[in-house]
Write a structure and sequence with these properties.
4-stranded antiparallel β-sheet, 7% helix
């Protein structure tokens, strides 16, 4: 509408009202604007590479320098020759179990932790509320795995005829399997599904053609009742030495060889999904329930490659770096590598989030809720840390 001078008319008061956004729409637009600002800020924070870490809180821990640490549940499991303790995120002991262990080592999942005396005969099983079981083995413990319910599978030394035994939390033997160089092969690693029903064993076999490997799956439920020795699936490796295996989830498991990675899928009878050839020397392997990470040694150019695969065996990230890190873990979408005071954090997307040196040797480090927030365990105890510019 135009006025007599040819200019747009302001219209009547009632007409102008039609062009005003409704109150509800204004609130929606305001919310969208706020979300856009927050998203832009979070993207800015995510894309940053930091080189400085600032300590916000320090919690002293008795005997902190003598302990070893593992992230467990929502806190930290501290273990040493004298006992096992569970700490919350402020370093407070929720429980402490005294014991005498010559050579302690642990296996942990999201729910349960097993602490054993390597070369000894004792295993203790813990959950967040404390110890739920204790096992005494007849033979020395070589390798171990634990399910979410606390069922423990162990490889026990016995010369050329080691035993593979599954125990419940009360120490009762559920399954016992005899291995041998001449028969099944020597067991190098054992893993157990989260529900404790399927066990994976990686064997080394000596044949006339040389050293070969085999990965076998044993089902102790209905599917395995009619199978010989409960073995429901297996894969032989003729051109690779398989050295370790693990379950990522109830459905997905993996076997790692000296030059390959095999993914299996199946809750009761695992089947091979794919085998990926690894053309470089494998330095270390680590995983969570979604990704498998590897540190590979570069030939010629030197340095290392950080490579990440998803549960289907697809390579989803690759980054070269020059430093040597002895420790590496995946937490959600973050890969944390550290050695001594040096630390490096990559996002699964390949973005370098942090690279730098902390004030003390790192005994354990993992992210917690909050922007750029981490817990660091060192000789001083527990520290809350944030990456800053």
């Amino acid at each position: 509408m135009f006025n007599r001078n040819g200019m747009p008319s302001e219209g009547t008061k009632e007409q102008r009202k039609k062009f005003k956004p409704a109150p509800g729409r204004r609130r929606i637009l305001a919310c969208v604007g706020v979300l856009a600002v927050v998203a832009a800020f979070m993207l800015f924070i995510t894309l940053q590479t930091y080189s400085t870490a600032r300590i916000s809180d320090t919690y002293k821990i008795s005997g902190g320098a003598d302990g070893r640490y593992e992230k467990f549940a929502e806190g930290v499991l501290k273990y040493s020759r004298d006992g096992i303790a569970y700490l919350d995120q402020k370093g407070e002991e929720k429980w402490n179990q005294s014991c005498q262990i010559k050579n302690p080592f642990v296996e942990i999942n999201d729910v349960s932790a097993a602490v054993a005396d390597k070369g000894g005969n004792n295993i203790m099983i813990f959950q967040e509320e404390g110890m739920i079981g204790e096992i005494e083995t007849a033979l020395p413990i070589e390798r171990m795995a634990v399910s979410e319910q606390g069922i423990v599978a162990v490889i026990l030394k016995n010369g050329s005829t080691p035993s593979i035994v599954c125990y419940d939390v009360k120490g009762n033997i559920l399954v016992e399997h005899q291995a041998s160089f001449d028969g099944t092969g020597y067991p190098l690693d054992v893993s157990i599904a989260p529900n404790g029903e399927v066990m994976q064993v990686v064997y080394m076999q000596v044949k006339s053609s040389g050293i070969e490997s085999k990965a076998a799956y044993y089902n102790f439920g209905e599917k395995g009742e009619t199978a010989t020795d409960h073995e429901v699936a297996s894969k032989e490796y003729n051109n690779s030495v398989a050295v370790s295996g693990f379950f990522m989830t109830q459905q997905v498991s993996a076997v790692v060889g000296d030059n390959c990675l095999t993914l299996f899928k199946g809750k009761e009878v695992p089947e091979e999904v794919t085998t990926v050839t690894i053309e470089k020397e494998i330095q270390s392997v680590f995983h969570n329930d979604a990704y498998i990470g590897m540190i590979l040694k570069n030939e010629g150019s030197g340095g290392y490659e950080l490579r990440v695969y998803n549960k289907s065996g697809k390579k989803v990230m690759s980054k070269d770096f020059s430093e040597s890190y002895k420790n590496a873990e995946i937490y959600g979408g973050q890969i944390v590598m550290y050695d001594g005071k040096q630390c490096c954090v990559y996002l699964r997307s390949g973005i370098l989030k942090f690279k730098g040196e902390l004030d003390n040797n790192i005994l354990e480090i993992f992210p917690i809720k909050g922007v750029n927030k981490y817990i660091v365990m060192n000789a001083n105890g527990m520290e809350h840390m944030r990456f800053v510019k």
